[in-house]
């Protein structure tokens, strides 16, 4: 199923302004929870009901100052999100 961004039938919630770059998605084994990796946060969404998506938990997850320093020392732009596992 595909909905366009401006579709009135699109069952999508908008995240709070402090959640961006939602690029990693993981579905639980029982298909009732969707884990969303975002910039500086991990979200757990209850998707067990087809017409409602609700936030179960939000964990703030920021790179440490050492991770930021390591990225900058490698010539990476510190203004860009950096995943320490990729450096």
UniProtKB/TrEMBL annotation:
It comes from the Eukaryota. Gene3D superfamilies: YVTN repeat-like/Quinoprotein amine dehydrogenase. Keywords: Glycoprotein. Residues 63-87 are annotated as: Disordered. Residues 1-87 form the Sema domain. This is Sema domain-containing protein. It comes from Ilyodon furcidens. The lineage of its organism: Eukaryota, Metazoa, Chordata, Craniata, Vertebrata.
């Amino acid at each position: 199923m595909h909905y366009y961004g401006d579709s009135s039938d699109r069952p999508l919630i908008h995240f709070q302004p402090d959640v961006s770059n939602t690029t990693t998605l993981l579905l639980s084994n029982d298909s009732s929870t969707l884990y969303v990796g975002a910039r500086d946060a991990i979200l757990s969404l209850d998707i067990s009901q087809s017409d409602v998506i609700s936030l179960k938990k939000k964990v703030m997850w920021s790179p440490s100052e050492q991770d930021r320093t390591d990225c900058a020392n490698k010539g990476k732009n510190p203004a860009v999100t950096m995943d320490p596992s990729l450096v």
